[in-house]
Structures are given as structure tokens and as C-alpha cells.
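Suppose a colleague, Dr. K., hands you the sequence of a protein chain of 536 amino acids and asks what its three-dimensional shape might be. Before reaching for any lab equipment, you can write down a predicted structure in C-alpha cell form. Begin with the sequence itself:
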Amino acid sequence: MKRPGTAICPSERNSQPYPFAGRRNQQRFFIRHPAFFPSPLNHPLETNPRSVLTFRLLPVPYDMAARRRLHPPPGAELSRSHPRWVMLDRFVHYKAYAGEAVAEEVMDGTQSAISSTCTNISIAVSLRVAEPPAVSRLYLHWPERFMTASLSQVSQPFIIAAHGRSILFQAQAPFVGDSCPAFYYYPMDYFLYTASDSEKSPCLMRLPPCFDGGDKNPDVDLYFHPYRLQQLRSMWRDDIGLLCRGKGEFVVAQLTFGGQLCVLHHKPGEEQGDMNWSVENMPLPDGDDIPNLLCGSWQTDAVVPYGDCYLCWADCYLGLLFVGVIDKRTKPPCYVPLPDGLDSNRLCVDPGYPDPARRVCVSESSMINLICVGDYAGCSVCASSYSAFTITVWTLTNLREKKWMKCFTMEDSKFWAALDFDKRLPHVLPEFPTISLVKPDVVYFRLNGGNKLFWLIEIDMKKEVLGSTSLYIFEEEEEEKCSIDMAHWRSFPGYSFVPSPFTRYLDQHAIRSLEHSEKLQNIRLEQAKEKRFVEE
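The predicted structure, expressed as C-alpha cells, is then:
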């Protein structure tokens, strides 16, 4: 089998493969492959006539470090092949460390370099990796002295978005050595966790605060000194998106329902202290079929990257809004309505509560997909009131012409037949769909089996068959001394998971947590069997 990072000359397919690093021969060969180059306006219907890739293998200096990565020394612990992508749980797990500094005691190479909160608490993060449909979880390494009283008063760290080699999350920071009258005075930090290009540890960057639009009240500012939470801009996590491009360049942007756009654009080579937020009133699109963003009818369900310059804010019941976040915004954003026949009445009206019936996702090839679980009239259905349902996957084929194509449809009878291949699975309505990042015909769902038992399943929409299955691991189960009394666990509202190719950018021996993830799965399954929540 060909090893990662090796190439086989077409004329030598039966010979030993040569690694790129350290190859001294002068042999050259070409690989020509027609490919699509996505255009933000025509993607993917138009093919670039110049989209033929040509690769030439040239002699390079002998790289001993690269050769060691390809051929580890005898006795070195080998990881399995990398998952091409992961499904990130939005809930981040606190992991305690003793003393005043983060110890390098994480089981693998996903541990980031040390960073700090705005309150000068030293932190690091790492990633427990699992093969989809099992969820992977971010660990926030936190001082042990803050693991009791302080953390009980702060909100749970939460993943906001992921793109490319980066993951964006938020975490509330307790004060150090100060008495605080209430937890809501604690400031909110935003961090970007980024895989490195080399064998270096992943980077953990704290983003600068934004004070533009913040509330200023001299009567209560005393409680916020010296961190000035009172003057921080209020940024709801569901309105924030992440766009990464090139080496080191990224954009974090927030779009309010009133049309105000707040952007942090970090350019390659820019020092962290030079980053600043910019806030502007964005021109809104006009038209009779466009919802009025100023009246508050718009509710963002997802923010996904599109191409190299756009972020897409999606309301799964009103449409998509494509906003250019790189260059100066002189034109209104592009509005795309939903496919014809879909009802616009929202299933869950509570702001901030994730919608279980519809989801907008983007593939690694920048294809925008809409997944709907509804009745035959195009209305969303919920678990408490449904008789029959259909799963439909749509793809946005042309942004300029605002065209959707129906790719897959699966009736409820086909879905039940697929579930019958695993007798442990409950026959309940599938919820919170997520499309695979690398296989556009594969969709993942959550099944609520009751008793805090949630199944995550893989469905091949093209073949209409069941794939892999797993159990959702609660955040409390990450600790070995987890309480078996599930009544004290946090509730799982069913937030849709965040697809990310983060693992693709790690060194091949960096990930060592796959076995630990399997162990958590086995423990969870055995507990469910003991309580007879799952059939043998």
C-alpha cells in the first residue's frame, strides 16, 4: 500500500514507492487532471478552460526530518490513518492542570502552544479525535484552582465555527484575585486554534476585543475594571462566521439583523497587536422577495464560508445572504431565496435554539447544501408531531442565477428500512442533519433514544443504506471519575455539530486519541446495556 506523502511513477507501479523528501534521482513525470475551479458567482456550472493542473517532480535537498516523519524510528508509537475530517461537538471540555503553568502532558500532538486569557490565566487546548459519526471534542486546559467555584459561574466554552486548519471558540474568563459580584461581569474571550504547517504545536491566538458599539455606563464600570466587559461589543455566537485563506490570513465577522457588519481581518505577516475590528453599516439588498432584515424577522441558523471572499449567513426559512468580507463593500450582499415549495414557517421560534429539521452546510469543494426533514407539503416536522416525512438534500448550483438542484430524496419507509440493519437503533424522527465534508451523498443525523441516549448515524442518501453508528458522548463523560448519575449532567439541546478538516493538517503521528475515543464509546454502550436502554 502506498504510504502518505509518497508518489509512484506510472512506469514503475510495481516497484517500491519513493518518498518526495530525500529523492535524488532526476526522473520527472507529469500528472494532468481536469479540475473545477470554483467561481463565487458561477460555481460550479462553468468550467475554467485553463483548469488543467500540471505537476513536475524536481530534485530537492535531502530532508532528514521529513524522512523521519515518513519512516519513524523502530519502537515509535504509530497512530492510525488520519480521519480526513471530524465532527466537532460545540461544547468544550475543561481539563484541569496543577500549578501555575500548563504542563506538556497531553496524550498527543494536538496540544496547542500556551496562550492566556485577558485576565492572565495560562491556558492551552487539545483535541480528542474520533471518526465520524462519533463527535470529536476540544479540551480547554485550565488551572486546577479555577475548576470549582469559578467555573460553576461561567458559561460553557463553545465552538463557534471552523474552516480550513482553524477552529474558532469562545470562553468566559474569571477574574484573577478579584472579588466579583456576579458571573455576568466576567469578560468573554475569543480564540483561534490553528494547526501548524510543520511539526510545531498548533497555535492558539486570542483575538483582540471589540469596543465599538459597546455599552458605557459610568455607574457600573467599576465592576468591570480592568477588563472593561461593560464596554465590549455584544456579539451573539450564532451571528459570527470564520473565513480562512492562504497562510495565516483569516476573517472573523459578525452580522447583526439590523445590517451592521463587524469584521476582524488578519493579513499574513501582521502582528497580533496590530489587529483591529472595523464596524460598518452594510447596504442591504432590495427587492420584493427579500425579507426585511431591519424588522427582526431574520434569524441566523448557520454561517458558512463560500469561496475565498464570502461568508454566507443562512436563515433556513428565509434564505441565504452572501457577503464579501475581504474587499471594501460597495455593493449590497447577494440574497438567494430557498428552493420553491419549502414552507417559511419556522419550527422553533425561540431565538438561539437550534432548528432540528433544516441545516445549511458547505462541502470542501465550496458546494452549498440545504438538508430538510419535512412533510410532503414542504413544512418542517418535529419529533412530537409527525406521521410521515421526507428527507431532501438541495444543492445551490449557481449563485448568480440563484438556482437550486434537488439531489436526493428519501422517504420515511426507506429510512426505517435502513435503520432495521441495526436493531439497537430507535425508530424516531431523524434530527439535526449534517452533510459529510468529503462525501456529499452522506448525511449524519441524531436519533433521540430517550434516557439521555443519543445515537449518531450515517445515511448514504444515494444508496439509501445505513453506514456507521455511534453514541453521543456527553461532556461530563470525558473524565474518568464521571458520575454515573445522569440526572446531574448538562442537557443536550441538540446543537448541530461543526464539520472541520483540522486533522488533515496535523503530522501523521500527532493524533493518539482514537483509541481513547473508542474506549469512551464502549463504556457508554455498556452502561446503556446495564440499564437496558439498549438491546443486546
